[in-house]
């Protein structure tokens, strides 16, 4: 789509005297070639409804319309940028809606149009992601990229929030290249970690492009990757986010230790050895297996087994927490039993016996 002549994002920053602020961790992408490349990484957005997070002065926003986006909802935290964004909104006949807010607290489904939310998609169809009428996209501050993706990941795992309408909504965002590398890393790679496992269980994760930090204003100190996450039709393993997150946190907390050592931290001290042996046995893992060698599926199965072990009823003798505090016995059941005091008796003298 060809837009009417509008000032460039760089011109708008100069006109409205809008320097990037450190407190918002702002690094604007202004070069039209760079913004066009970023939007191209999102794939086909023609006639799509795009939710853009952190539009800044509108450089990427303008490219969204030039690539055929039907409507854009732009969520911006910095109110100073609204006059610049309003200039673009006027040029596209108000197909750009502006919202002031922090994306970490923002209810995205509230900005989705009724004509999309009332026509529910089929999550498990092959075309669900490519035909999704919604796309999430943004050049995010580095400090909120992972918290926001974790929030969306939890919503995908429960099919809630904007993912509750049956569409496998693609996500295209910027983040530090090193962090993106951890998300897409495969088994046996040095960058493999917790993020690799939890994201790959629910998403197809791909790095689409890497920008030099010099492409941003002000320049970023690191290279910046454009990563795309597309929800899978079905997770690699059906497991709750909380269980998988807990198991992977424990496993990668000490990366160089063996599974037989690290997994013990998941269990209570009284049953730790037995539960750890059972966990590894049922998962068909040896105690000297290194966590870096496991696939996302293997971690998923490990989390399933862990959930089964901790959810089953325990014999009463295993529930007792054998702590003795002087005259008290304290139990996990919340009851405290006090030892009866010994009855003190006076020692009889020889005279008493004679009597």
Automatic annotation (TrEMBL):
Q: Where is the Ribosomal RNA adenine methylase transferase N-terminal domain?
A: 34-233
InterPro entries the record matches: KsgA/Erm (IPR001737), rRNA_Ade_diMease-like_C (IPR023165), rRNA_Ade_Mease_Trfase_CS (IPR020596), rRNA_Ade_methylase_Trfase_N (IPR020598), SAM-dependent_MTases_sf (IPR029063)
Enumerate the UniProt keywords alphabetically.
Answer: Methyltransferase, RNA-binding, rRNA processing, S-adenosyl-L-methionine, Transferase
Annotated S-adenosyl-L-methionine binding lies at 27, 29, 54, 76, 102, 139
PROSITE patterns xref list: RRNA_A_DIMETH (PS01131), SAM_RNA_A_N6_MT (PS51689)
GO CC, one annotated term:
mitochondrial matrix
Q: Which SMART domains match?
A: rADc
The record's subcellular location field reads: Mitochondrion
The EC number on file is: 2.1.1.-
GO biological-process terms attached to the record: transcription initiation at mitochondrial promoter
Per its UniProt record, what Gene3D superfamilies does this chain match? Ribosomal RNA adenine dimethylase-like, domain 2, Vaccinia Virus protein VP39
Q: Which domain of life is it from?
A: Eukaryota
An example Pfam family from this entry, by short name, is: RrnaAD
**What class does this enzyme belong to in the EC scheme?**
transferase
Query: What's a Gene Ontology MF term here?
Result: rRNA (adenine-N6,N6-)-dimethyltransferase activity
Q: Which family does it belong to?
A: Belongs to the class I-like SAM-binding methyltransferase superfamily. rRNA adenine N(6)-methyltransferase family.
Supply the name of the protein: rRNA adenine N(6)-methyltransferase
State the species of origin: Rotaria magnacalcarata
